[in-house]
Amino acid sequence: MDLNPFDVNNSVSCRLTSEIPEVCRTEDCCLGIDEAGRGPVLGPMVYGICFCPVSKKEDLKDLKVADSKTLSEPERENLFQTLDEAKSYVGWALQILSPNTISTSMLQRTKYNLNALSHDTAIGLVQFALDRGVQLKEVYVDTVGPAEKYEEKLSKLFPGIKVTVRPKADSLFPIVSAASICAKVARDRVVKGWNFAEDLGEVDTDYGSGYPNDPKTKAWLLKYLDPVFGYPQFVRFSWSTAQTLMDSKAVSVHWDDDEEDGEKAAQRQNNRSMLSYFGASAGGNDQNGTHQTHRYFTDRRLKSLNTL
Amino acid sequence: MAAKKKRTPNVQNDSWVVVAADSVIDTQKHDSDPAFVRLRNPLTDAASLYMLGSGDVQLYEVKAFEEDFHSWFVGQTVQRDGRLIFVTPMDPLYLILPYLIKSGKEGKFQPVDQVVMDEEFPACSRLLSCTRSLTSLHHIAEEKEVGGLKFHRYSQERTMNWLKKKVERTVTALKKRNISVGEGVKSATFIRVKPDADSHEEDYLRYAHGLISEYISEDLSKALLKHLGLPELTSPKETEPPSKKRKLSDQPVEAEEDYTKFNSADFARKPPKKMTAAQKTLAKVDKTGMKPMSSFFSPKVKAEKK
């Protein structure tokens, strides 16, 4: 697995793929989808697909692929090796969603939540396989959100393909297990060798699992909190763990779309109460006799100053 | 996300982001540095910030762009206020004018250095060092020369002509810059089939007059409006249509409803109908000046009958 394309710029989303086995273009294939790194506050979320001809399904079992969570890291690395070597009939593709992508998606003005991001990434990977000529007939997915809705959504998008969405699909279907191994291995490698874009000097890489409840992760987050910028791009800003720490320890930053208390915000924006339009001196007198600045200046937000 | 953020008041800082005319930083010819000065604002009569270039040769006005939710990154620091300060050249006559008008009430010719004096803003005498000040005083005052000394007296007529020229120049500048002067909003991307030119000449004049009025007293502004031949705009309240339509016919007014029924004994005995909660609250609403819904429908029918 060559992680170079991601390391070059780890602030965006990146796709890594194996060669497409010839047999997958001619024979009916099945495809499994799984993800790794959904929960942690650190590092990327990786989506993986694995596909092989339906006829070779049983061969996967012989490779002893199993749910990645039941395997140790060296076992996963070995299994990935085995899968990669079975390139005559097994293909894989990965989508690495950088923590920065996750942060900016979830925190942008029109919020794009993690489930939608997950769904769209999965769909993108299936479409990728189709575009490359893989003869997909069956797709197996570990669910994100309610399984029935997700299954219906995918079935509609890919007519002619039998979509099966199940919770715990990674322990039920070997092809999903294989996908989960690919995703998990990629995530582990990326996190281990994270290339910090920020100039942090010698970075302490002892950040534990990256999950919010890990004490090591918490300690690391405290250590690398910058009062102005918050965190390196390695951290998912949208996680409440990160936000709580920034709210209490960093400088407060106000954005245009921050929600503020109605009355206070109105006062700050010099909004007039609706009632003022009905008072005895409605219109004209609201300026208290002071001059109203010409609209050339007000339109351009220009003001005279009396002190610096 | 729901955590409330406290707004701390802006802390005074010692640096600003400024856009200034090249001439401001051209300090080679003179020994003194350009400096911010507080002078009397001719419109508000209160202090405003101005800048005098090096050697007090040129006057600049100081305006700040200020909008919520802005900050600067300057080099390796963060500047909290997102203010952008503009230092732009300004005609010193605007600031000298109020002093001349004040002394002009005495009707005497006086030396300007005695006129342009202000205990509150002592820096105002420096205005006279500006290259444009003394040479252009004749635009706003009559001049007399006695024994090599110059004396001035404020002239309303000259001032009006001078301001009129300013307005005309502003109109030219507005047209050149394509600045939208009409009422209402115009989109820059919306392309009109034909430019609606001449009908907007007055819009331009009014807009330019408004801009110039930012630099003169309100009295002068009104006088200038007259001088430009523009009628004063009536306040929106007066231009509002009358709330009731005037009757067009000369025929005697007939009662539209039979009020006599309220006098009948039959009416008085009827117990008042019970109202629902919604009707009660509605009844409490002050309806003075409001037209009933029915008034929007009836009159036309009647007009046709006659």
From TrEMBL, chain A:
<dbReference type="GO" id="GO:0046872">
    <property type="term" value="F:metal ion binding"/>
</dbReference>
<dbReference type="InterPro" id="IPR023160">
    <property type="entry name" value="RNase_HII_hlx-loop-hlx_cap_dom"/>
</dbReference>
<dbReference type="InterPro" id="IPR024567">
    <property type="entry name" value="RNase_HII/HIII_dom"/>
</dbReference>
<dbReference type="Pfam" id="PF01351">
    <property type="entry name" value="RNase_HII"/>
</dbReference>
<protein>
    <recommendedName>
        <fullName>Ribonuclease</fullName>
        <ecNumber>3.1.26.4</ecNumber>
    </recommendedName>
</protein>
<keyword id="KW-0255">Endonuclease</keyword>
<feature type="domain" description="RNase H type-2">
    <location>
        <begin position="28"/>
        <end position="251"/>
    </location>
</feature>
<dbReference type="GO" id="GO:0003723">
    <property type="term" value="F:RNA binding"/>
</dbReference>
<dbReference type="InterPro" id="IPR036397">
    <property type="entry name" value="RNaseH_sf"/>
</dbReference>
<dbReference type="GO" id="GO:0006298">
    <property type="term" value="P:mismatch repair"/>
</dbReference>
<dbReference type="InterPro" id="IPR001352">
    <property type="entry name" value="RNase_HII/HIII"/>
</dbReference>
<keyword id="KW-0378">Hydrolase</keyword>
<dbReference type="GO" id="GO:0032299">
    <property type="term" value="C:ribonuclease H2 complex"/>
</dbReference>
<comment type="function">
    <text>Catalytic subunit of RNase HII, an endonuclease that specifically degrades the RNA of RNA:DNA hybrids. Participates in DNA replication, possibly by mediating the removal of lagging-strand Okazaki fragment RNA primers during DNA replication. Mediates the excision of single ribonucleotides from DNA:RNA duplexes.</text>
</comment>
<comment type="function">
    <text>Endonuclease that specifically degrades the RNA of RNA-DNA hybrids.</text>
</comment>
<keyword id="KW-0540">Nuclease</keyword>
<feature type="binding site">
    <location>
        <position position="142"/>
    </location>
    <ligand>
        <name>a divalent metal cation</name>
    </ligand>
</feature>
<comment type="subunit">
    <text>The RNase H2 complex is a heterotrimer composed of the catalytic subunit RNASEH2A and the non-catalytic subunits RNASEH2B and RNASEH2C.</text>
</comment>
<feature type="binding site">
    <location>
        <position position="35"/>
    </location>
    <ligand>
        <name>a divalent metal cation</name>
    </ligand>
</feature>
<dbReference type="InterPro" id="IPR004649">
    <property type="entry name" value="RNase_H2_suA"/>
</dbReference>
<dbReference type="InterPro" id="IPR012337">
    <property type="entry name" value="RNaseH-like_sf"/>
</dbReference>
<keyword id="KW-0479">Metal-binding</keyword>
UniProtKB/TrEMBL annotation, chain B:
<feature type="domain" description="Ribonuclease H2 subunit B wHTH">
    <location>
        <begin position="94"/>
        <end position="224"/>
    </location>
</feature>
<keyword id="KW-0539">Nucleus</keyword>
<feature type="domain" description="Rnh202 triple barrel">
    <location>
        <begin position="28"/>
        <end position="91"/>
    </location>
</feature>
<feature type="region of interest" description="Disordered">
    <location>
        <begin position="233"/>
        <end position="278"/>
    </location>
</feature>
<comment type="subunit">
    <text>The RNase H2 complex is a heterotrimer composed of the catalytic subunit RNASEH2A and the non-catalytic subunits RNASEH2B and RNASEH2C.</text>
</comment>
<dbReference type="InterPro" id="IPR019024">
    <property type="entry name" value="RNase_H2_suB_wHTH"/>
</dbReference>
<comment type="function">
    <text>Non catalytic subunit of RNase H2, an endonuclease that specifically degrades the RNA of RNA:DNA hybrids. Participates in DNA replication, possibly by mediating the removal of lagging-strand Okazaki fragment RNA primers during DNA replication. Mediates the excision of single ribonucleotides from DNA:RNA duplexes.</text>
</comment>
<protein>
    <recommendedName>
        <fullName>Ribonuclease H2 subunit B</fullName>
    </recommendedName>
</protein>
<dbReference type="Pfam" id="PF17745">
    <property type="entry name" value="Ydr279_N"/>
</dbReference>
<dbReference type="GO" id="GO:0032299">
    <property type="term" value="C:ribonuclease H2 complex"/>
</dbReference>
<dbReference type="GO" id="GO:0005654">
    <property type="term" value="C:nucleoplasm"/>
</dbReference>
<dbReference type="InterPro" id="IPR040456">
    <property type="entry name" value="RNase_H2_suB"/>
</dbReference>
<dbReference type="InterPro" id="IPR041195">
    <property type="entry name" value="Rnh202_N"/>
</dbReference>
<dbReference type="GO" id="GO:0006401">
    <property type="term" value="P:RNA catabolic process"/>
</dbReference>
<dbReference type="Pfam" id="PF09468">
    <property type="entry name" value="RNase_H2-Ydr279"/>
</dbReference>
<comment type="similarity">
    <text>Belongs to the RNase H2 subunit B family.</text>
</comment>
